[in-house]
C-alpha cells in the first residue's frame, strides 16, 4: 500500500497586488483632480435668448449689492487675487441680474484699468 502524499496543486496567482495598484491609482487621480470650488455667494445671472458657452478658468462673482467674490475670497482681497492671476485666461463675470448698471460699469472700468482685456458676462438661457 502506498501512503505517499498526493502531489500538491500549484497555488493560483494572488490578485491582492493588482487590487493594491488599482487603489493607489484611484487615490492618485482623486488627489490630482481639479474640483470646482464652491461659489462664494448665490448669484442669479441675467437671462438671454441666445447664449453661447463661456470658456475660461477665472470666474468673478458679483452679487446684487455689488459685493465681489473670487475663489474663496470676497471684497477687495478677491479683486487683488484675481488681478494677480489674470495670465491664466479670459475672465468670466458671473453677475447677479439685480446688479445696478452703474455698479457693473465701475467694476468693468476697474478691471480694464488693471489690464484685464477679455471679459465674458455669464448669462443663463431664458425664454
TrEMBL record:
Name one matching Pfam family: ExbD
Localization (cell): Cell membrane
Q: Does the keyword Coiled coil apply?
A: no
- This protein's major location comes to membrane
Instruction: Name the membrane topology term.
Output: Single-pass membrane protein; Single-pass type II membrane protein
List the GO biological process terms. protein transport
Q: Which GO terms describe its cellular component?
A: plasma membrane
The record's listing under InterPro entries reads: ExbD
GO MF, one term, reads:
transmembrane transporter activity
TM annotation in the entry: 12-31
Which keywords does this chain's UniProt record carry? Answer: Cell membrane, Membrane, Protein transport, Transmembrane, Transmembrane helix, Transport
Matching PANTHER family: EXBD MEMBRANE COMPONENT OF PMF-DRIVEN MACROMOLECULE IMPORT SYSTEM, TOL-PAL SYSTEM PROTEIN TOLR
According to its UniProt record, which protein family does this protein belong to? Answer: Belongs to the ExbD/TolR family.
Name-wise, this protein is Biopolymer transporter ExbD
Organism from which the protein derives: Algicella marina
Amino acid at each position: 500500500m502506498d501512503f505517499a502524499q498526493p502531489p500538491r496543486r500549484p497555488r493560483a496567482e494572488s490578485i491582492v497586488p493588482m487590487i493594491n495598484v488599482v487603489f493607489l491609482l484611484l487615490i492618485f487621480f482623486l488627489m490630482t483632480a481639479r474640483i470646482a470650488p464652491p461659489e462664494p455667494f448665490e448669484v442669479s445671472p441675467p437671462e438671454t435668448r441666445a447664449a453661447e458657452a463661456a470658456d475660461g478658468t477665472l470666474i468673478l462673482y458679483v452679487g446684487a449689492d455689488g459685493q465681489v467674490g473670487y475663489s474663496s475670497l470676497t471684497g477687495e482681497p478677491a479683486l487683488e487675487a484675481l488681478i494677480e492671476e489674470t495670465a491664466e485666461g479670459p475672465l468670466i463675470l458671473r453677475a447677479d441680474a439685480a446688479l445696478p448698471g452703474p455698479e457693473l460699469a465701475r467694476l468693468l472700468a476697474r478691471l480694464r484699468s488693471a489690464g484685464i482685456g477679455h471679459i465674458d458676462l455669464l448669462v443663463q438661457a431664458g425664454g
